[in-house]
Design goal:
heterodimer, A: alpha/beta, Rossmann fold, 3 domains, 6-stranded mixed sheet, 18 helices, 32% helix, 24% strand, globular, B: 371 residues, mainly alpha, two-stranded antiparallel ribbon, 4 strands, 4% strand
């Protein structure tokens, strides 16, 4: 249906504007430049009364910038905003709230030690000097019940889950009377079940005449919740479509500008001996709380074991502890049968373990050093280029770097460019080039496609699958379920540092995976495939 | 039209040379204004003061570099600066801010004095004596730096505060020695030790105007240059300096690198102290260093931590110190002026580096009214 290519005319589907279609919000020809990047270029969107408009686009497409302009955090270089048909200058978030525009940011802005009610009235001028706690609490209770967002008004925020905190943010906006809600990737921190609760509330809201802008890069939920979809690419609007007139595939095409083969076949690989064995591992997080709780797993040669879970359930600590960056309390990690000492990275690298962390900028690379320096970061141990410690062979290293830049098609001005000038995708390629060049026996990949565009994502997937077919054992701590279905041979679900159960990598099991992500143990008799 | 300040994406290469050069000139200019005000107070009229300022500047900038006596003093001042600055660069490469060059210099000087007049006083071979005293100086500097190193590596203390405070401990310790137990009984009550024996003095050249220290400093600079460029220590220390988490991830022991960086840094400064004793002072005295350890911080920065550039900058700064001595002698200017000048250079340098991260952009387009 979306066969006309990328530049879909903006007003194609607007058709005849009836009274109900009257736009409550219009942003016209918005341009916003940051040094070196144009985040938004001539972007126009309109939001109608009682609809959910999805802003869809890859990371870096300009969705968040656009919404920050609308909410008064940034100021547009050019363009205008109209609310209810009146041209309006939104100078600050407070000002935006006065116009009925509210935004739930990706990072919540709650005071953990305050109660829900206190957080809701925080900063509201109308409250006056003495807070009428009872009134506020009952009003919150009423709002929560009305929209299916239950939360106890007297609970302290720090005791609540991420999903509940998000509800508070939304209730706070409703309390102030916002009728245009902006939600920036609200489902990123939610389990599928919690997302469902959110969606129900949003449907209720729009049915009562509010309007919602829903930022996302996940196609499925966009297809589920939105009425119309505006797709952004490279800071420009490439099309606005009503949901009923498109499908997943059409959206991908708009998002990336080309048809993408989403579902490729996994290469067949001989699954062999156990390579990475973790037994009864317990690890504390930075706060000193138990993050990994007596966890055991095994990854075999040529196998990709995917770990699904809501972020923050011990994935990072598990990965760091297997890699030796974090000391374990108890338990053992074996690589090819060899016991690895807790907290020793060097011996693990030497034994062929590599780690692709989620934070490539803060852990996996040195931002101010060159591509070459970053490629040879582990060279004292891995010896990609053999040279004496007292007489480094800069020529050989430089030649090897050029080779890798070519074979991984890293787009960089030169091998001497500091990697902070590289895009996320190219930076990840530098990391992959370094980590895969050592011919690892086992790879720990922690959300390796985080923040990458679809092209770079494909590259990462292909690289991992290629390693698998070479017989490498891969532990994938996935950020998205899609990644798991796409790559893995088995899926383990983690919740609060424990594995709740295993399923095959099949979308048919999504409900079960969701339940386990939310903390319910798998019933033992269901699957026999956990090896 | 509107002028905007925006961040540069890439800092151009020429900034590395341009900023230090401009900083020195800017500091000279501001210093000129201070001198001018000073001379107005003394001579009354602006014209006379202006004349005096120009004259003083000519004296300050020409004497240290254009005649034999001036040059000799310049080289003499340059050596301790170069040693300490080279030592500091070793730690600064890893973003470990050793401010303790002064204390490490003092401890190095103290240890070599101990060797020269007590421990090895029976050794007659100059070669062996100089070698032993150099080792003494380096070890003392290293041990003095080991204290903040261990504290940083194991207790995560801030090395800036600890190294700075240890300077005072070292200076007062040396004062205690030279006023007390080590005081020369034949020194007419002067706070200093007995002179070094002949075999503990560095060989000199050109009628005794240059001592061996200048060559050891240059050799050391060449060695460090090689270490930074061509060894895995230099390679890995860049990683530790840029991103310690990445270093840990790469299997580099950040703790060991921290300790070694500070210890070597202190050893080089301590060697500088020993060299200063053997080459110039020939006895340990109260306040023998006019703050070489602090000036060296500026030298290391101006030299952008490049060992060869550091040698060059320490030559220039040695000259400035000598020029300042001239001003003091012939114009009766206060001694603190050199500190003012050094402060101005560092101020301009750091300010210049910060400002260079931005550029001005002129927008000719009319901006949309946001009101």
């Amino acid at each position: 249906m979306i066969s006309r290519g990328a530049t879909w005319p903006l007003d194609f589907f607007s058709g005849v504007i009836s009274l109900e279609d009257f736009p409550v919000l219009e942003m016209k020809n918005i341009t916003k430049a940051f040094p070196g990047v144009v985040a938004n270029e001539d972007v126009s969107i309109e939001l109608r009364k009682g609809e959910v408009l999805a802003l869809l686009g890859e990371n870096g497409a300009g969705k968040t910038t656009l919404m920050n302009i609308l909410f008064g955090i940034y100021h547009a270089d050019k363009g205008e905003v109209s609310v209810n048909g009146k041209k309006t200058a939104i100078t600050s978030p407070n000002n935006a709230l006065k116009h009925g525009i509210g935004m739930v940011q990706q990072h919540f802005t709650l005071v953990p030690s305050f109660t829900v009610a206190e957080n809701v009235v925080l900063g509201l001028k109308e409250t006056g000097f003495v807070i009428k706690t009872k009134t506020v609490e009952s009003k919150i209770k009423k709002l929560g019940d009305a929209y299916g967002l239950p939360v106890h008004p007297r609970a302290r925020v720090w005791t609540l889950s991420v999903g509940e905190r998000q509800r508070i943010e939304i209730l706070k906006l409703l309390y102030t009377g916002a009728n245009i809600l902006i939600l920036d990737e609200p489902t990123a921190v939610l389990t599928p079940q919690e997302s469902e609760v959110l969606f129900k509330a949003l449907r209720k809201l729009v049915s009562e005449g509010s309007s919602v802008i829903f930022i996302s890069h996940k196609l499925d939920e966009v297809m589920e919740i939105s009425d119309r979809i505006t797709v952004l690419r490279n800071g420009k609007v490439v099309g606005t479509i009503s949901k009923t007139e498109t499908d997943r595939r059409g959206l991908v095409k708009l998002m990336v500008g080309r048809d993408l083969l989403v579902d490729t076949v996994k290469p067949e690989a001989q699954i062999g001996r156990p390579v990475l064995t973790v037994e009864d591992l317990s690890v504390k997080n930075d706060k000193g709380l138990l993050a990994v709780n007596n966890l055991s797993l095994e990854v075999r040669a040529g196998e990709i074991l995917g770990i699904a879970g809501v972020a923050g359930n011990g994935q990072r600590e598990l990965a760091e502890s297997i890699y030796g960056l974090r000391k374990s309390l108890s338990g053992s990690v074996r690589l090819d049968g060899k016991l690895m000492r807790s907290g020793n990275v060097t011996s693990r690298i030497r034994s062929g373990l590599t780690y692709i962390p989620q934070d490539r900028k803060t852990i996996a690379t040195c931002p101010n050093l060159s591509v070459m320096n970053n490629i040879f970061m582990k060279n004292s141990i891995t010896r990609l280029v053999k040279s004496s410690s007292f007489n480094l062979d800069n020529k050989a290293m430089s030649a090897r770097t050029e080779e890798m830049i070519k074979s991984f098609s890293i787009s960089t001005p030169s091998s001497r460019t500091a990697v902070r000038y590289l895009s996320g995708g190219n930076l990840q390629k530098v990391v992959l080039a370094r980590e895969l060049a050592m011919n690892p026996k086992a790879i720990i990949a922690e959300h390796p496609t985080r923040g990458l565009d679809i092209g770079a994502m494909e590259f990462v997937y292909r690289s991992l699958l290629e390693q698998k077919s070479k017989g490498t054992a891969i532990l994938l701590l996935a950020g998205e379920l899609y990644e798991i279905f796409r790559l893995c041979d088995r899926v383990a679900v983690i919740f609060e540092g424990q594995i709740m159960g295993y399923t095959p990598p099949d979308p048919a099991f999504i409900e079960e995976i969701g339940l386990m992500m939310a903390g319910s143990m798998q019933e033992d008799s269901v699957h026999e495939n956990q090896g | 039209m509107k002028i905007r300040v925006e961040k540069r994406l890439e800092i151009p290469k020429y900034a590395g040379i341009l900023v230090p050069v401009i900083s020195v000139f800017a500091a000279l200019l501001i210093m000129g204004v201070i001198l001018l005000i000073f001379f107005i107070g003394r001579h009354g009229t602006l014209a006379a003061a202006f004349g005096k300022t120009v004259e003083a500047y000519q004296e300050m900038l020409s004497w240290p570099f254009t005649n034999r006596y001036g040059l000799a003093s310049t080289f003499m001042r340059m050596v301790p600066l170069a040693f300490v600055a080279l030592g500091l660069s070793f730690a600064y490469k890893m973003k470990i801010w050793n401010i303790g060059g002064e204390g490490q210099l003092y401890m190095g000087a103290m240890a070599s004095t101990w060797g020269a007049i007590f421990l090895f006083k029976d050794i007659t071979s100059p070669f062996l004596m100089i070698l032993l005293l150099s080792i003494c100086g380096a070890i003392a500097g290293a041990l003095w730096a080991l204290i903040p190193a261990l504290m940083k590596a194991y207790a995560k203390t801030d090395e800036i505060v600890v190294t700075l405070m240890l300077n005072y401990v070292a200076i007062f310790w040396v004062d205690y020695l030279v006023y007390g137990p080590w005081k020369d009984p034949r020194g007419y009550g002067f706070p200093g030790t007995a002179p070094f024996p002949e075999q503990a003095k560095l060989p000199t050249f050109f009628d005794g105007e240059f001592h061996l220290g200048i060559f050891t400093a240059i050799t050391l600079a060449l060695i460090l240059f090689y270490v930074y460029k061509k060894t895995s220590w230099g390679f890995n220390s860049r990683i530790v300096g840029d991103n310690a988490s990445a270093a840990r991830y790469s299997g580099i022991s950040v703790r060991n690198y921290t300790i070694i960086a500070l210890v070597v840094s202190g050893a080089i400064a301590g060697l500088g102290g020993a060299t200063q004793m053997m080459g110039v002072q020939h006895r340990l005295q109260h306040g023998f260093s006019p703050g070489y350890g602090y000036t060296a911080i500026i030298v290391a920065w101006l030299g952008k931590l490049n060992p060869l550039a550091i040698v060059l900058v320490s030559f220039l700064f040695g000259g400035l110190l000598v020029g300042n001595d001239q001003l003091q002698m012939f114009y009766k200017l206060p001694m603190a002026l050199i500190s003012v000048f050094q402060g101005l250079v560092l101020f301009c340098l750091l300010g210049g580096e910060a400002l260079f991260k931005y550029r001005l952009r002129i927008d000719r387009e009319e901006l949309l009214d946001n009101e």
